[in-house]
Design a protein that fits this description.
- Keywords: Transferase.
- This protein is an alpha/beta fold.
- The chain folds into two domains: 214 residues, Rossmann fold, CATH 3.40.50.2000; 176 residues, Glycogen Phosphorylase B (Rossmann fold), CATH 3.40.50.
- The chain is 42% helix and 14% strand.
- It contains 18 helices and 13 strands.
- Helix 5 links the parallel strand 4 and strand 5.
- Helix 1 crosses helix 17 and helix 10 packs across helix 15.
- The longest helix has 21 residues.
Length: 425
Amino acid sequence: MPSRPGRAPVSPRHLRVLFAFENELPSRQADAEVFTTTARYLAGHVAQARMHLPAASRAAASAAAALTGMAVVRAWAPVRPAALRHLLCGLTIVLRREFRHADLVYTRNLWVARMSILAGQRVVFDHYRPWGDQIPPLRRWIYRLFCRERFLAVICHSDYTRRAYLALGVPEDRLHCIRNGFEPERLPEPMELAAAKQRIEVPARRRTVVYTGRLNHKKGLELVVEAARLLPEVLFILVGSTGHGSIEALAADVANVRIVPWQPDDRLAWFMNAADILLIPPSRHPLATYGSTVLPLKLYLYMASGRPILAGDTPDIREVLTHGRNAVLCEPDRPAALAAAVEALLADEALGGRLAARAGEESLGLTWEARAGRIAALMAERMQAAPVSGGSWSGRQTRSWLLQSWRWLLHLVRRRSWVLPPTAT
């Protein structure tokens, strides 16, 4: 990558970064956790870090500052309605003194990125969704935005998303797969399986399959409940209920499915320690139907937990987990296949131990601190690079753009959903 002539190398320690988040904090949403945790760890690698976000009051801003570990700049935007909040977060950030004094804006919002570029600021964009595939009418606009000179980098959480933008014609040097991570302190000292089961009131000899995360129809949990019906001797523990939804209703008459409310980190560790198997529902639907889950965040915490992982053999999961090396992967969307995989893994404790040990070794490079270090080095490198606009938009891409936009419109009318899933492309 060419450097700017006559300039000394840029160090991350010299950078002033304005992080821009468009939603109120605190939040239980995974995207909020990813962005704020990344920002908090990145703040330790740069000269100055501030967070621009909407807050309903000074007290809310103070709470957000405590959560992120940095000074908060209150956005000139109301918390509600959401559409107006997003619009004004982008329109008014450019008026702030902190915006003018920053070396770059770090955001997950395309509108904020666009307004920052128009105001002459540099931008790093960090998001897990392949927006051009999910909302095809935006493709040409996204392509032009990502190819601007001051657009430094797109941080993708998966190669699945990176390849989607690469196919759009965005220059390869703008696209970087830097995976999410976990915080080792969220995992206390390992507890013996029997003792952990006793703590959550499960008999020591009862075999357990544990899922942690939101309980809703977008996670493939219907499949898990159906598999539980086939394995009445195995206890399936689903942790993360926030009310009486469709999954809770489906599991109501299944004696070996235990629904557990959302847990704080210390108690969540009890359930993970009590798992014979940690489960990521082996379903294509989160990725292919809803497009809302690409490499679920829980994966990295699972890898460090010391318990064997069972997941689906899907494109995003295969980027990190390999069947027989650090996990068991089964055919997606088949309850019988999931039940058979559970039985096989429970029957071979030596295999489970080997898989868990290998996953634990590989998790050492997947912490939030490691992610922040990689991003800080990338930001410094991109700041030093000679500004070049580029990319290639062909007639074939125009035809694909128009075709997919038409399919997206039909999907919007029929399904009332703004996101076009991969199965519809």
